[in-house]
Specification:
about 40% helix, 16-stranded mixed sheet, alpha+beta, Aminopeptidase
Length: about 900
């Protein structure tokens, strides 16, 4: 090399003797500089980058292993070795006994008689063995009736009669006026054994009741355990308890246990910000903490179509608390696959240990005595790899965020000073802003590319290949995301920073440019008080510290040690962010199987993957400017993508679903054998038919089963029905038109409707242009009523609840609609109410005022399905999960 440089110097000296060869000299220098940049100034071989990518995959695998780790379940035989410990085996026995009754729909014999009897018998056994010297235990079975407006899904008014709760209170002998409420629900949806949702939580609570009642340590406050029997009836039983039960007024805090998946780790995904001390107790006492305010903001945003009793206790009881949910293996949620075989014993042990420690920490503390002394503002919280919880108030969060933001800007300014011997400060600022803009363009390009891939797969009919095998996402979308990010930064660095001699300066520009992007995100979090702003915070604080310390540590030297330093500085935010991402994937991927056929789940997941991973790798992309042969990296990524696409298109590996009993990921259908009748103004039938209403719950429905179910080839969209009839002339059980709107109708046999559904009304002309209807509806134990006033007519009030009736978010013909959900669980009780309308002056009382539809639903028992209906359902393949019942729909203009 020394000889080569010497020769090159002599050549340049010789060329300078001939001015006419200036052009030749410039050309030579250009070639020489390009060669020099390739050979000496780019210090990282491409193999290093490939090794780094492999290392990242290894980190991914390590985080997955950490996330899956569950404690061993303790056995009954080990009870003497672990006194006062939660015994998972006993909880599993309780779960087996509870689920053996099968689906427990509110109103069914299985729910109202068998499940209640089992719970009462177990409670009596616990009381018989309790430590009566320290604890006083009492229980009762509550029946309640009521009504309440609920901003759930499209919005509804919920009416219930005689729903049941089994309630137990464990009190210290000396007594207390303050109680902690612990809640689960033992009812289920149609056709599901409900092992995880929510039988497992009730099994955990029974075991906790045993521990609390036999403990030799006195309690400071009361523990109320609520086994509620109508949560799947849209949270009716919890409303009955918190508004009517004799113990409700002494409840000062609550813990709600729920599930949208089977097993895994129970996640804290909602925490009331008024009393952060509850979270502090959780973080100090729970041996396996898991949760974040990010999950809470996702849930509160409405992206997840669901709700829990947490809302009822908070809104109608004005009580603070924590909401825990199992979210892993959401494939079985609300299906026949949700049995005891899907619930790991380790999950029961983990949940039991955490909730036991949390409950005892709360009831033995002093905060319940006077909650007002410990109230404060909002709360930011997250756990680090399940080891501990980081939490602070929104006020403290704003101080931390603002301080880190200013410190980060200073670190960028410091880097600008260090580069001033090569680049002027004004030019450095321009290049820095250009680098930030390049990162911004990268996010847009990544989104475009992944969406194009998703659109291509949709057109090829190969959507949701990742549903059963989520690892395909790594090849389909993560690889292209990295490739686009690398290529964008590499192109920009070669085109716009080609005159910068030092590749390290280029790297620092793109590194700090990305830091500016996260600074902006952090600033947005501060302005709009976003609690999940802790994510950009960790992506700002660690690179900032890295910037501030690299000068004193390395001065001007840049070598492999400096690279290791950079990677170590980024490791913690990278690992924590992937840890949060993994939890989101466990939640969202199964949800794509029930998000409705009107939503393209392929595009939704593609966008989610692209945006998350371009952020995860954003600090890695500047390293491509230091690679000698980046083409090898691109070849690897593109090759992996092409191979994966070929396998998914040409082999069965791309089939989305699985009926494996040990690990099911079924395609879901809701099918309702329906009788539809439309009446005119005179009360005569103007139309109607019978058949199967097929509710398509994912993008592939319903064509996937055509070869198994010949009738599905006759399925027709219901678009025209939605224009002509209220709620599409279909028996919606819940107001879900905003996301379940793409459905089909198959002409078929008439359903068996043994209980007649009647609609009667009396019309009264009141003063001040008000017309009152006295409504009476009878039918089976689940009934829905939809109302839409005619143009220029307003619905003022009704006797169901006080105040202005809650309108549904669903408009029909530009008119508001109102949805009433009604259920009784004991003796048949008609739905009766008065409803007042404001009409134009001198309105003829003989004219109609509203369109009204009444639906009846047979969700359980012998009337749920006829023999013909059952034969139709038996044709579906084993990799499907069908929720099916019988219903009627009748509409009137009155």
């Amino acid at each position: 090399m020394k000889q080569r440089v010497k020769t090159d110097t002599s050549v340049r000296n010789r060329l300078r003797r001939f001015p006419e060869d200036d052009v030749l000299l410039l050309n030579y220098n250009d070639k020489y500089d390009k060669h020099r940049r390739k050979s000496s100034n780019l210090p990282i071989p491409s193999a290093y980058m490939m090794f780094l990518l492999i290392l990242i995959v290894a980190v991914f695998m390590a985080v997955i292993v950490i996330e899956k780790k569950l404690p061993p379940g303790l056995k009954i035989s080990e009870e003497e070795l672990y006194p006062n410990r939660f015994i998972a085996e006993r909880a599993m026995v309780n779960l087996i006994n509870l689920t053996k009754f099968g689906p427990r729909v509110a109103g069914s014999y299985e729910n109202e008689v068998l499940a209640v009897k089992y719970l009462v018998d177990e409670i009596k056994n616990v009381i018989a063995k309790s430590n009566k010297n320290l604890h006083f235990i009492e229980y009762n079975v509550q029946r309640s009736s009521g009504a309440f407006p609920l901003h759930f899904l499209d919005g509804m008014t919920n009416v219930y009669r005689d729903v049941q709760n089994v309630v137990v209170k464990v009190s210290p002998i000396k007594g207390s006026n303050s109680s902690l409420l612990l809640n689960c629900h033992f009812d289920t949806v149609t056709d599901s054994p409900g092992a995880s949702d929510d039988g497992a939580a009730c099994a955990v609570m029974l075991e906790l009741l045993r521990i609390f009642s036999q403990s030799n340590i006195p309690l400071r406050h009361n523990i109320i355990l609520l086994f509620n029997g109508a949560e799947e009836n849209i949270m009716q039983a919890s409303h009955g308890f918190i508004t009517q039960h004799k113990w409700a007024k002494e409840v000062k805090a609550f813990i709600n246990l729920e599930a949208c998946g089977a097993g895994g780790r129970e996640m804290l995904f909602q925490a009331n910000s008024k009393n952060p001390w509850i979270l502090e107790i959780y973080s100090k006492n729970a041996p396996y903490p898991y949760g974040s305010s990010l999950a809470q903001e996702i849930f509160e945003s409405g992206l997840i179509p669901g709700d829990t009793d947490y809302r009822i206790f908070r809104d109608f009881g004005n009580v603070s608390g924590l909401d825990f949910v199992w979210s892993k293996n959401g494939y079985v949620y609300h299906t026949l696959f949700d049995d005891v075989y899907q619930v790991p014993v380790g999950s029961l042990q983990r949940t039991g240990d955490n909730i036991q420690a949390l409950v005892l920490g709360i009831v033995n503390g002093h905060q319940l005595s006077d909650m007002s002394l410990y109230s404060s503002g909002g709360l930011v919280y997250f756990d680090f790899l399940g080891a501990f919880v980081v939490h602070w108030s929104e006020f403290i969060a704003n101080i931390i965020n603002a301080s880190v933001l200013l410190l980060s800007l200073y670190s960028i300014y410091q880097n600008m000073l260090l580069a001033s011997n090569e680049i002027s400060q004004s030019r450095y600022i321009k290049l820095l802003l250009g680098s930030a803009f390049t990162h911004f363009i990268t996010w847009i390009l990544v989104l475009i590319v992944v969406l194009l891939i998703g659109i291509s797969l949709t057109l090829l009919g190969r959507t949701m290949s990742w549903f059963t095998r989520p690892f395909w996402l790594l090849f389909l979308y993560v690889g292209p995301t990295i490739c686009v990010a690398f290529s964008t930064v590499l192109f920009a660095s070669r085109k716009y920073q080609k005159n910068i001699k030092s590749p390290w300066t280029k790297f620092q520009l793109y590194y700090d440019g990305n830091l500016l992007i996260f600074n902006f995100a952090l600033l947005v979090g501060i302005i709009f008080r976003i609690r999940s702003a802790f994510i950009p915070l960790i992506w700002v604080i660690f690179p900032t510290v890295c910037n501030l310390l690299q000068g004193p540590i390395f001065k001007t030297n840049r070598d492999w040690k400096w690279l290791v330093y950079q990677m170590l500085a980024l490791s913690l935010p990278f690992i924590q962010s992937f840890y949060l991402t993994l939890g989101a994937f466990y939640l969202f991927i199964p949800i794509m199987g029930r998000s409705g056929a009107g939503n393209n789940s392929e595009l939704m997941i593609a966008a989610m993957i692209g945006l998350i991973f371009v952020g995860l790798f954003s600090y890695l992309t500047p390293f491509i400017t230091l690679i000698r042969n980046p083409e090898r990296v691109f070849s690897l990524l593109i090759g992996m993508f092409l191979i994966s696409i070929s396998l998914l298109i040409l082999t069965p590996l791309g089939f989305p679903y699985s009926g494996d009993p040990n690990s099911p990921s079924p395609q879901r259908f809701m099918i309702v054998n329906t009788n539809r009748t439309y009446y005119d103004l005179s009360g005569n039938v103007r139309g109607g038919d019978t058949g199967y209403w097929v509710v398509d719950l994912d993008i592939n429905s319903p064509n996937t089963v055509n070869n198994f179910v010949p009738e599905m080839k006759n399925a027709k969209p219901v678009d025209l029905d939605c224009e002509l009839e209220l709620y599409c002339g279909l028996p919606y059980l819940l107001p879900v038109r905003h996301f379940i709107w793409k459905t089909h109708w198959i002409p078929g046999p008439a359903p068996n409707l043994p209980i007649p559904t009647t609609f009667d009304y009396n019309k009264i002309d009141l003063e001040n242009d008000i017309i009152r209807y006295q409504i009476n509806v009878t039918g089976p134990d689940h009934i829905c009523v939809m109302i839409s006033p005619l143009p220029n007519i307003d619905l003022l009030e009704w006797s169901l609840v006080d105040g202005q009736p809650l309108a549904s978010g669903e408009l029909w013909k530009g008119r508001p609609t109102y949805f009433i959900y009604y259920a009784y669980v004991a003796n048949p009780v008609p739905l009766t109410f008065d409803i007042d309308f404001k009409v134009p002056k001198k309105y003829n009382i003989l004219k109609p005022v509203m369109d009204i539809a009444v639906t009846s639903h047979y969700l359980h028992g012998k009337n749920q399905r006829s023999n013909i209906f059952s034969e139709f359902l038996q044709q579906f393949p084993q990799w499907t999960a069908i929720t099916a019942w019988t219903a009627s729909y009748a509409s009137y203009r009155v």
